[in-house]
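Deliverable D5.2: sample structural annotation.
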Amino acid sequence: MLAWMVLAFWFWRTCKAQPIEERPDRWKIMITVLTGLFSFSINLPMFDEVLTLAILPLGVWILYGILKRNERWQAYRKYAWIGFLGNYIFFGAAILAIGLSGLFYPKDSIETYLADISNVELIPIHPSGKEVDLNITKLEESLVTFEREHGNVVQWYEEIREQKWPTEENKEPEKAQEKFPYLLTGVKAKAGKNVQVYVELDGKGLLVTSEDHQYYFRSNTASFLKERGSEE
């Protein structure tokens, strides 16, 4: 939104500074600016995100090809370039948004994803999960102890595969044991993020899955799972 506001202000200032007799119709100017946004771009992985950086002004070239024989091209040229340079405004705004998001919603904090757990429920999603219940009090108390760790998804998969399929060491494998056999539902994250939270078998690990990332958190305190029927 900030980027669009800057672009609109630049468009308005340029339009006001241009003599009325040289100024194109407003709707034509808007089309010119929007066309100027069209560019050949590359994707840059930065700050755990993929940002788009404009390289070649394809929209400007298209407009020049259409209007070069028209004496009015000089009146439209500045707006075409405003459109292209607007790509860099959006690029800068994206970096600013990432920085502010990291400040207010740190990715390394479990409370970013489990901001409200008052209505959470534990659901078994794999038959290898034990018959347990959620101790909501312990979960609330232990949240501050969770720290983000590197989750080796490939290793986890290999461990499950070795359990499921025969190997030289394991001729008759037992039933595969899922590492995260439970799901926490009713979780509310900050900033309206949609997340799924999987619970590790021992109740000390959480795998948070968002739209495009996964984060693994681990606690060294007691498990927040309790055996079914237990009073603890």
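Annotation notes: Residues 64 and 70 are 9 Å apart (CA to CA). The mean pLDDT is 83.
The annotation will be released with the project's public dataset once the embargo ends.
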